[in-house]
Structures are given as C-alpha cells and as structure tokens.
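thread: overnight batch results

M.L. [08:02]
morning all. the overnight job finished for the chain we discussed friday. pasting input first so we're all looking at the same thing
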Amino acid sequence: MPNTIVQIDGSYGEGGGQILRTALSLSAIAGRSLEIFNIRAGRKAPGLKPQHLMSAKAAAAVTGGRLEHAELSSRILRFFPGAAASGRYCFDVADIKASAGATGLIFQTIAPVLAFAGGPSEVIIRGGTHVPWSPPADYLKEIFIPAVAKSGIEINMAVRKFGFYPVGGGEVAVAIQQRKKPLQSISLTERGRLERLVLISAVANLPLSIAERQKARTLKRLEIPDLKLQIQSIITEVPSPGKGTFLFIIAEFENLKAGFIGLGAIGKRAETVADEAADDFLHHLNSAGALDPHLADQMVLYMALASGESSFTTSRITNHLLTNIWVIEQFLPVHFEVKGMIGEEGRVAVKGAGGSR
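M.L. [08:03]
and the structure it wrote out:
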C-alpha cells in the first residue's frame, strides 16, 4: 500500500482519544503518514490534552518518527512514522503538564507497535492510572492483556503506584515481547459459565471504611437468586501521591474474563461507586455476549491485524466500538461485519489483514 497521508476526521463518531490512539498505532504499524484534524471538536476544551500529546510523542519515540503541530490544544496533528524499534522507554505525562493524564491511552497506543518491533521492550509510563474516560490499569492488566494474549501477543504489566484525578503521579511498568509471526485469529463468541467473581475495593490516602462500604454495597447488589458462585472480596490500601478510590469487579467466565469498575470522586458516595460497577456487571450477566463493551472496543484492532477470520460477541454494541472500526478501515484492507444495534447485544467479525498490511 503506498505511503500516502491518511487523513482522519477526529470528530467522527464518538471522537476523542480512541481515534487518536488507534490512528497513531496503525500509522506506525502500516508505515503510513497520518493527519488528524478536528481533534476533540465540540468538546468544552477541544484539541490535544496532555495524555493525547504524550501518546503522539510516544509513537514518534518508538518509531523514530516526526510530529507536526504537536502542542497542547492543537486541533490538528501530523505524524510521519519511522521503523519501530524495541528498547527501554519512559513516558511521563508530567513532562508535558502536571496532570492525571491517562497512562492507559499511552499504553494502548504503543503496545501493538512494540509487539512488532525487533525485540522485547520495557516501558515505564507515569500519569493517571485510574481516571475517567480511559481503561484503568487494573482493567488492562486483568482483562485486556489476557484477552490479547489469545492472538499471540505477550505483555506483562505491574502497577507500581496508583494515579487518581486530579493529582496523577501513578506508574506502570510494562514488558512487551516481540511477535515474530502474524497474529492468530481470535474467536470469542462463547463466554461459558460464570465460575468466580473477584471484588477489589481500594482506597488511597482515605479511610479504609470507604473501601468497606464499597464492598458491602457490591455484595448486597449481588444477592441474586440462583447466583451461587465463589466470590472473593479484597479490601486494600494502594500507594498513591493523591487521594482516590475504586471498586473493580472481575468476572471469571469459563472462556475469558470481563471487568467492571467504578471510580471515586470528590463528593461521590462509596455506594455510588459500587453501584456503577455492579450495574455494568449485571447488565453483562443478563446478556449472552462474551466480551464486555470496553474489551470489544479494544480487541478489534488486534482482530484486524491477525490472519484469518476473527469474531466475537459482546453484551453491548457501542459508538466507541463503531468509531474504532471506522478508523481501522481507513488504514487496513479489511471490512468488519457488525450485527446488532447500538446499545444492544451484537456480533463482530472480520477477515484480518495478516501479512497483507
């Protein structure tokens, strides 16, 4: 495919960070230059935020690439990638601006790029690990990484410090192994029976009673007739430079795991945090879909890069999922088939580009 500039409208669909993350990844992997315009158009504060800018700088760093218009609040970004190089890297959102910019966005931008580099890589990412509008580090470690391993990509993540809004200051350490062969196709259409639940109720620099209330509320919400299974509850204090809290539900099904999280905020009751996670879990439990909605959004990139037919079912088709699919189809010679309406259960299938990208 010729190295023409791929132009992406950053206001398409849900817009936001997911367009940037996927476009940067595919630009680097496919070796095609990228121009994104209308970045976060329509938002109260449009343009690049610290985590978006650091994601772009990270993509440039791991490929030896070049950026244009790479500055805070810019509504346009051009990226001219080089060749991905394995190695040791460190990216700190605070190098751009002290904030709780999402480490998850940076991780998901560079992880698939480094998987195809010339060797193993070690990456330190500092910023917000548990912040709104981005997959928390616990979710990436417990849900996303095991799922993507089914394609043959090996990633390990350790959360060294937790970063909450607005202070940030969290740190994750990531090890990414080189993938020498095309990715394996992914079939995740049957989740199997629910075998176990793990509840993690955590606080940082706050009374432990908040975590206890989150746990108690969640257990009460899970008092469901006929739902008889093992539930492991963990109350913990996590290291962080700021204050924060979360409730994380890990649902271990026979064939894969799903994750549901509620994040604390100033003035937000512990019971509300628990309800957010419980509501999402119960919605998923009452469907037949294999992937939770957040994992569905994240897996389509790896399906498109794999060889052969890949498919999954999900408990909810989302605008984020459809937007991500649109971005992928701008870069790769693939066409996704989506069955289901937004907000409902659905099925997604694609014949991956494999070695033809």
